[in-house]
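Q: Could you predict the 3D structure of Histidine kinase?
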Amino acid sequence: MSENNTNRSSAATLIATLGGQPQVVTFTLDALFAQGEQISEVYLVHLSLENPRIRQALHRLQQEFLDDHYAGRRCRLRRAPIQSNGQTLTDIRTAADAEATWQSIRNLIAELKNEGRKLHLGLSGGRRMMALLAMSAAALLFDHQDRIWHLYTPEETLRRVKDGAVMHVTPADGVQLIQTPIVPWGAYFPALRMLAQTSMLTVQEQLRLFTAMEDPACRQVWERLSPRRREVLRAFAEGKRPDEVAAALSISLSTVNTHKTAILAECRVVWGLPDDEPLDYRFLRDRFARFVQQV
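A: Sure. Here are the predicted structure tokens for Histidine kinase:
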């Protein structure tokens, strides 16, 4: 593999939904850089530029990415307008518009994953429906390394930064980038990724069937566990990390890890997984998230 291909496969991309608030993109990007992420390109998913607020937001962001550089780093800004029949959608008003939005986002994610990109998905801008549809596409196409993010901005800061009046903040402003849990179904069931080429409704029905099929295996594991280990499993299924489980249950981290190892051993037996297949707490979140809501 050439050096250029190696660099590209190790690079990361931020996909951000865009409405009239350009600062949510720069706040997210700044936070990712602060975490040590190497973001080399940003794709803006947006509706028609006939909307003056979206047009102004794009212009404001373009000023931040002069000559394919952002804050002294090499980072390209790219547009990904939502298309339907060759035209950019002005809004998401109908089921057909939702389908077109889902397909546009799905195609973008699939193309970037085929290039070996690590993806970050920022969903704080634009229509709420756009964010929901993006999460649906990500569930099929994301890998375990990919991340979805929500941006929390305090009300006082919101008023001050509105409409891109301020494009960068300090820790004192209270802006927080929060990871949103997601089950990467396509990583566990590669056949589901083929479904991404079909309609959104077909995918939703197949996902419902797949999750229902998981229930008997989840119940087998559940019934083999002690009450305490069920509490640990539930905490992991709710998206907590090991340290957060320890804090929530008032037990030590080593105790959490002991319970986790025992629970994963039961999972390995029930799912028939080979001994050399690595499992960690994310497996519990991904497989049991739906199940624990029912028990």
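Q: Anything worth pointing out?
A: DSSP finds 13 helices and ten strands in the chain.
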